[in-house]
């Protein structure tokens, strides 16, 4: 992935600094999953993801993960997506 655009938006060494930051997200449902994905695409390098719920058919429509992750813990599913 090319980080040129992100680096232009953030400025010089900020992308490098961001890659060493650790972000914790508690709750990876409809909001938290997209926050994690967006932060990962912005260059954040390390995450602590916490959610004790599993991805179910009833909440798949509003989640960042898709049907492949049904039955999986939401934190694990999002972790796989942002790797």
SSE topology sketch:
Layout: H1 4-10, H2 14-19, E1 22-26, H3 32-41, E2 46-50, H4 74-82
Helix pairs in contact: 3-4
Task: Provide a quick synopsis of the model.
The chain has 83 residues and is α+β, with helices and mostly antiparallel strands. It has helices spanning 4-10, 14-19, 32-41, 74-82; strands spanning 22-26, 46-50.
Could you explain the architecture of this structure?
- There is one protein chain.
- This protein has 83 residues and is of the alpha+beta class.
- It has four helices and two strands.
- The protein has helices at 4-10, 14-19, 32-41, 74-82, and strands at residues 22-26, 46-50.
- Helix 3 runs parallel beside helix 4 (74-82).
- It is elongated, with a radius of gyration of 14 Å.
Name the strands of the widest sheet in spatial order: 1-2
- What percentage of amino acids are in beta strands? 5-15%
- Could you tell me the CATH topology label: FAD/NAD(P)-binding domain
Level-1 CATH class name? Alpha Beta
Arithmetic mean of pLDDT: 91
Order of helical and strand elements: HHEHEH
CATH level-two architecture:
3-Layer(bba) Sandwich
Number of strand elements? 2
Structural class designation: alpha+beta
What is the subunit organization of this protein?
Answer: single chain
Low-confidence stretches: none
**Total domains:** 1
Helical residue percent band: 25-40%
Number of helical segments with 4 or more residues: 4
Instruction: Write the CATH homologous superfamily.
Output: Ubiquitin-activating enzyme E1, inactive adenylation domain, subdomain 1
What's the shape? elongated
Radius of gyration: 14 Å
Terminal Cα span: 12 Å
Biggest β-sheet, characterized?
2 strands, parallel
């Amino acid at each position: 992935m090319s980080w040129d655009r992100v680096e232009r938006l953030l400025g010089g060494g900020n992308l490098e600094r961001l890659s060493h930051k650790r972000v914790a997200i508690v709750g990876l449902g409809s909001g938290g999953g997209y926050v994690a994905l967006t932060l990962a695409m912005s260059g954040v390098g390390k995450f602590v993801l916490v959610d004790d719920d599993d991805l179910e058919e009833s909440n798949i429509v509003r989640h960042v993960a898709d049907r492949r992750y049904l039955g999986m813990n939401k934190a694990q599913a999002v972790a796989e997506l942002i790797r």
